[in-house]
Amino acid sequence: QITLKESGPMLVKPTQTLTLTCTFSGFSLSSSGVGVGWIRQAPGKALEWLADIYWDDDRRYSPSLKSRLSIIKDTPKNQVVLTMTNMGPVDTGTYYCARRGTLGDAFDIWGQGTVVAVSS
Amino acid sequence: SSELTQDPAVSVALGQTVRITCRGDSLRSHYANWFQQKPGQAPLLVIYGKNYRPSGIPDRFSGSDSGNTASLTITGAQAEDEADYYCNSRDSSGNHWVFGGGTKLTVL
User: Fold this and answer.
1) Cβ atoms B17, B76 nearer than 8 A
2) Which residues have CB under 8 Å from A67's CB, separation 6+?
3) Which positions in chain B have a beta carbon within 8 angstroms of at least one beta carbon in chain A?
4) pLDDT band per the 50, 70, 90 thresholds, residue B76
5) A:B CB pairs within 8 Å
6) CB 3.0-4.6 Å disulfide test: which of A1, A101, A108, B15 passes with A34?
7) What's residue A101's pLDDT?
8) pLDDT tens-place string over residues B7-29
9) Which residues are CB-contacts of A80 (< 8 A; sequence separation ≥ 6)?
């Protein structure tokens, strides 16, 4: 069974750095073509792609958020970590991690999401 | 352009056919993937690539593309298909990804 689960703080203060961890099972991030990405969704709004990291350590970032994002993987621990600096109220929302690379290049399996609120 | 445009809302009578569209320059070069999202749930992949359904997705869901437009068609819509639908594809550079603004489907 393939699962992904996001974890991190539910509340961060403005200007702080957010660190989210995606812990997965049932697949390996050392398998050719496989990647894990992060997607977020503000309340009542559309999905927004944030970043991907691939089996070969290739990293891709949303151009509009690139300066604030960092994504790394810990293959033995089956984890992917996303950091986002200088958090603000507009960054409030649900953050998802998802796997891609098994069904074309689509995100085929998603985590349940973790809610992050930015408030002082 | 890195944008994908979807109609905000679409409705369909129970059992009828509905098409949800996604427009963007990058779709001339890249396929769209389609996701269904119900309230309080994570998105679910329903169509990927040219027109492929993941295991467990009913065959009433299909995908197509023409020029700068990708479409998701539901043939014989069911009550349980009422949800938000998002397209997702690469941007024109091919190096990044973008989601459409989403379409809220109502089944009447």
Assistant:
1) yes
2) none
3) 2, 31, 33, 35, 37, 42-45, 48-49, 52, 54, 86, 88, 90, 95-102
4) very high
5) 64
6) A101
7) 87
8) 999 999 999 999 999 999 999 99
9) A21, A22, A24, A29, A36, A38, A53, A71, A72, A73, A74, A97
Pick the residue from chain A with its C-alpha nearest to B2: A63
Average predicted confidence (pLDDT) for chain A? 97
Single-letter amino acid, residue A42? A
SS3 assignment, position A81:
strand
pLDDT in tens, A16-37: 999 999 999 999 999 999 999 9
Task: Report the SS3 class of residue A22.
Answer: strand
Of A113, A117, A116, A101, nearest to A52 by C-alpha is A101
Count CB atoms within 10 A of the CB of residue B98. 21
Q: How far is it, in rounded angstroms, from Cα A83 to Cα A89? A: 16
Predicted pLDDT of residue B1: 47
> Is residue A92 within 8 Å of residue A11, measured between CB atoms?
no
Rounded to a whole number of angstroms, the distance from the CA of A110 to the nearest CA of chain B is 7
The Cα B53–Cα B56 span in angstroms is: 8
Check if the beta carbon of residue A37 is closer than 8 Å to that of residue A48.
no
pLDDT beneath 50: ranges in chain A: none
* Contact residues, chain A, for B57 at CB < 8 Å: none
